[in-house]
Amino acid sequence: MKNNETRTQNHRYRWSPEEIDYLETHHLLLSIDDIAERLGRTARAVQAMSYKLGLERKQPRWTDVEIQRLKKHYRPGADISALCSLFPGRTRAAVLSMVDESGLPRPEPLWRDDELRTLKHYYPAEGTGVAARLTGRSRSSVRIQASKHGIVFQGNSRRRPWSMEEKHLLARNIHLALAELISMFPARSKASVTCARRRIKLKS
Questions:
Q1: Going by C-beta distance under 8 Å and a sequence separation of 6 or more, which residues neighbour residue 45?
Q2: Alpha helices, DSSP H, located in the chain
């Protein structure tokens, strides 16, 4: 009795977005009973939510043409919604299920706002090397996201021209100590900041 209560401990609570996402992703991969056990809900509750979400457990068999299309267009970090649009009649869960069956790497989680800020700040100077600052993100994923957001690698910070925004920021804070200025431009080397600072002082 106690074990049964543990397995269905969530059955009285509203479904969370994470639970719904789990159900949509796994309803073609696991049985109703397995999903119910993992979510701590009753099998009847899982069936009811599946029906409410319009999840069909039986779909037409994937054709060779569809599988080849999936392999052609799927890339790690790809926009899954755009990918699903290539398969009318297939649910998101069905597409993800076929990604697994085809031996393709599963899509990465959506990029968070803080990750995108890091990408925009460091990619111009570091390129795909910024992946070292983004736990769990590959160089390939970084490259795809940079391209999607129009962020361009501009090369080594010592050779990359200072933007007008950087020049204005440096000029406004030229009175600060060199160490403080360097901390304001993490994508710039000490030598780069020192030279830029010297140029501004010579012009003033």
A1: 11, 36
A2: 2-7, 17-26, 32-39, 43-53, 64-73, 80-84, 92-101, 113-126, 139-148, 164-172, 178-184, 190-203
* H or E stretch at 31: none
Residue type, 9: Q
132: its two tokens = 């070292």
CA 104 to chain centre: 17
Tens digit of each residue's pLDDT, the chain (204 residues): 334 444 445 556 788 888 888 888 877 777 777 788 888 888 888 888 887 887 765 567 788 999 999 989 887 666 777 888 898 878 777 787 788 788 787 666 778 888 999 998 888 877 888 888 888 787 878 888 888 888 877 765 555 677 788 888 999 999 999 888 888 887 777 878 888 888 888 877
Q: Do you know the residue count of the chain?
A: 204
- Angstrom distances, CA of residue 142 to CA of 26, 63, 78: 27, 32, 11
- Report yes or no: 131 and 139 within 8 Å, Cβ to Cβ: yes
Q: What is the pTM of this model?
A: 0.36
Give whole-number Cα distances, 108 to 14, 24, 41, 140, 196, in Å.
Answer: 27, 16, 27, 11, 39
Angle (deg, nearest 10), helices 17-26 and 92-101:
50
